[in-house]
Amino acid sequence: MGHGGGGQLSAELVQHVFAPAFGGEVLADLADSAAVTLGGARLAFSTDSFVVRPLFFPGGSIGDLAVNGTVNDLAMSGAAAAFLSCAFILEEGVELSCVARVAEALGAAARTAGVQIATGDTKVVESGHGDGVYINTAGIGLIPDGVDIRPQRARPGDVVIVSGDIGVHGVAVMSVREGLEFGVRIESDCAALGGLVATMLAVTPDVHVLRDPTRGGLAAALGEIAAAAGVGVAITERDVPVPDEVANACAVLGLDPMYVANEGKLVAFVPPEHADAVLDAMRAHPLGARAAVIGECVAEHPGMVVARTGLGGTRVVDLPLGEQLPRIC
């Protein structure tokens, strides 16, 4: 399970098994989506699989995740998603009414995100060899001229901005999976971020890095960027927006919100001369209303993320080994 968690084990699996087997310059960037040139056009291309349990949770479903997750991967290259493929892997015995609910949620999410489902596939596996419904989606979109967003572009001096509260999606899924009650209803923040990214790029196309902190949470996203660019990242813990209900739930579960997956948030590395304007634009957008500066990119401790604590010290924010909460996307 750890190899699918987005942390150190996942990175080792990609580095030592998949990358050597597949090769190629395009794959080497290991970004959320690949930037490719085809017929003179720059395209973003991404694929993702969704195995969340349960299929329906407060604020969303596997159908919503299947669209928003891939749309967001494309948006992290600055692209507006245009078309998606959609493959359903169904377990023998799953009720057709359940499949219909998932399909309806997926279609509604696609319409909201402004993307078309262009092609698809269906497979059925024997009872006991699946978990109801798994979904794979792939997507393509155009990258605007002048936009070059990738992890390797992080530079010392860049301002690190997160688009809002972290840890919400993971805690929402965990609450219904384990039948836990936290005194308040926590709903997933699952959303398509294409509009928010377009708002940011309207301020300046020179956004260096975008990442959606899904598996492994904000900690993994920052760690991957630091490693890819060979820079350090310094954040201030008290500036990271964590809602009280998420903090309290994590305290009960023994979790660190920094490592909990999100499905409707992004982290951006922005040149300092554009940071204030980009932050203002994000806060004017519904999906960035609680955007906050959480730190900066530094030349010290390359490849490492450190957090300034409330007590005035610092701690290393390690890349997680696996995932605290498996099967939440």
Automatic annotation (TrEMBL):
It comes from the Bacteria. Pfam families: AIRS (PF00586), AIRS_C (PF02769). SUPFAM superfamilies: PurM C-terminal domain-like, PurM N-terminal domain-like. Residues 32-143 form the PurM-like N-terminal domain. Residues 155-301 form the PurM-like C-terminal domain. InterPro entries: HypE, PurM-like_C_dom, PurM-like_C_sf, PurM-like_N, PurM-like_N_sf. Belongs to the HypE family. This is Hydrogenase expression/formation protein HypE. It comes from Streptantibioticus parmotrematis. The gene is hypE.
